[in-house]
Q: What sequence folds into this?
């Protein structure tokens, strides 16, 4: 790993295991854990290739796989990838650092139709790595594809800094919403969902 992420430096020991247990409990209770996937699925052709970047224990990628897509999920945390493999067979789950992402070297050379960074992935990156992560993820998406990113802009990463990283990565903001169910963006929104395309 090039630089330790905030997921490593700003959480306590056992956080990954707690996170896995939390989402397993939510799933057992019937919580809606597929909102991000429903939006991504609506944007994709059938049987598309989808990159779940910062996939965690796999809830979004698993839902997209259930829709018939070919899913590759990537996370730097092996505990989360182990949980994804155990709980959600079908997708390809890989341990990899998003700042150095090279899926061709890991056996996935074909471009993706879309990529999703859900669950505040941007806020858990190492500070200052937002641009290389967006560039690496965007570089795995085909010319007509998209990258969709959701996070709380009131924590760690203001939107103007995110937008500067988007531009520096060779991408542009095509749409922005306040929620994954497409409520209109407004400056007081406590969440931002941004659809990015190649410039």
A:
């Amino acid at each position: 790993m090039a630089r330790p992420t905030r997921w490593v430096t700003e959480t306590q020991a056992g956080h990954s295991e707690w996170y896995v247990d939390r989402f397993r409990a939510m799933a057992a209770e019937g919580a809606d854990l597929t909102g991000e996937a429903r939006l991504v699925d609506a944007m994709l052709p059938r049987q598309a290739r989808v990159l779940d970047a910062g996939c965690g224990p796999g809830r979004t990628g698993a839902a997209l796989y259930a829709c018939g897509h070919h899913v590759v999920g990537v996370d730097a945390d092996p505990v989360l990838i182990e949980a994804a493999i155990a709980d959600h067979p079908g997708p390809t789950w890989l341990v990899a650092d998003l700042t150095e992402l090279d899926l061709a070297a890991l056996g996935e050379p074909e471009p993706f139709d879309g990529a999703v960074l859900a669950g505040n992935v941007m806020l858990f990156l190492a500070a200052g790595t937002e641009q290389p992560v967006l560039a690496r993820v965007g570089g795995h998406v085909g010319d007509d594809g998209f990258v969709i990113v959701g996070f709380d802009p009131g924590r760690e990463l203001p939107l103007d800094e995110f937008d500067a990283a988007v531009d520096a990565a060779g991408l542009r903001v095509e749409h922005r919403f306040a929620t994954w169910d497409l409520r209109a963006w407004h400056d007081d929104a406590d969440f931002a969902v941004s659809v990015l395309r190649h410039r």
Observations:
- DSSP finds eight helices and seven strands in the chain.
- Residues 98 and 133 are 5 Å apart (CA to CA).
